Task: structure prediction
Amino acid sequence: MSITFNIDARKATSIPCPFCKEAVEFGYAEDNGKGGCCDLYCDGTTVDFSDTVNFSNRNAYDILEMLGYDTSNYMGEITDLAAFRRKIMLRLNTNVDSAVREAYHLPSGHAGVEVDMSGDVPRIERKGCAVYSGGSSKSQITRRLNSLDKLAQMAQDANSSILWG
Ligand SMILES: [Zn+2]
Result:
């Protein structure tokens, strides 16, 4: 599961459709009368999402919560980009410790035991699946903050907000 941050598609830059280009290159292009040739509906352009930012859910929530945003709806829109960038700058120049997490591994069976009496012989079952967490270092958080700031800059240039979810 992951969270993607991107510029509002209606405001993002339009670029030539890469699938149309491929269709021409590989010789299966068929003009659809709408400007495109890769399928029936393509108008020959697509939205440039090349600078979207994607983090795991936990990493995205850690960053957003550190910056004071509500993550309870699992999606949102950041409209005040100046304030967003100020918060990022403040964090980059003070500390990001609240989002630093140690890596850990919980082996399967870590959640206790249960006695299964359903069969002929009682059986002890260990509960809990294996859990792996890669943790989050200070430099990873700094990198994430910088990529969000770059995206915010692009959104400001496109007069857009940032949508995340
Ligand atoms: Zn196309």
In short: The pocket of zinc ion is lined by residues 17, 19-20, 36, 38, 42, 44 (CB under 6 Å). The CA atoms of residues 29 and 40 lie 11 Å apart. The two ends are 10 Å apart (CA to CA).
